[in-house]
Write a structure and sequence with these properties.
It comes from Halomicrobium zhouii. This is EVE domain-containing protein. By secondary structure, the protein is an alpha+beta fold. It has 5 helices and 8 strands. Strand 5 and strand 6 form a beta hairpin. The radius of gyration is 15 Å and the shape is globular.
Length: about 160
């Protein structure tokens, strides 16, 4: 299993629509062929831009992804399929015209609620550090296996619920 960890910002409405809740592909017969076969799928998009493209190209199946909104991490998952949505299907069909043409499916999604400062401590960032967008956590900052990071966020959420 891959050891990459990605931190991904997410808009609450679009995130709820396509990650927190799985999307029924039966409702969208015109969906991209790159989406995996099956009844339902969770997916997210990386906004267009050079640095985001660089990070997107480093995403591999099984990589850990941590979703955040403002000061809170709201979910974890594993990268599934990645593809470029050249037709802007997701942006125009299920999102609010968000310019995100690089799409990844999300496997093993788990909702969490962990303050940014607590996650910053896991990666040895200052408590006030605020990720400015999509980023890959540097290898030197990932001292635990991704599965241990996921477990820590789940346990924090359960303890503070």
């Amino acid at each position: 299993m891959s050891s990459n960890v990605f931190v991904v910002p997410c808009d609450p409405d679009d995130f709820d629509r396509t990650v927190r809740s799985a999307v029924s592909l039966a409702d969208y017969p015109d969906h991209p062929d790159a989406l995996p076969e099956g009844d339902e799928v969770r997916f997210w998009g990386v906004q267009d831009g050079d640095s985001n493209q660089t990070y997107f190209e480093k995403m591999d199946a099984g990589d850990l992804v941590l979703f955040y909104q403002d000061d809170t991490y709201v979910g974890t998952g594993r990268i599934g399929t990645t593809f470029t949505d050249d037709e802007s299907w997701a942006a125009t069909t299920v999102w609010h015209d968000t310019p995100a043409s690089r799409i990844f499916t999300v496997d093993e999604f788990t909702p969490v609620s962990v303050p940014r400062a607590a996650v910053n401590r896991i990666f040895d960032y200052a408590d006030g550090y605020n990720p400015g967008g999509l980023m890959r956590v540097a290898d030197g900052r990932v001292s635990k296996r991704p599965a241990a990071i996921e477990l820590a966020l789940e346990q924090y959420t359960e303890k503070h619920a």
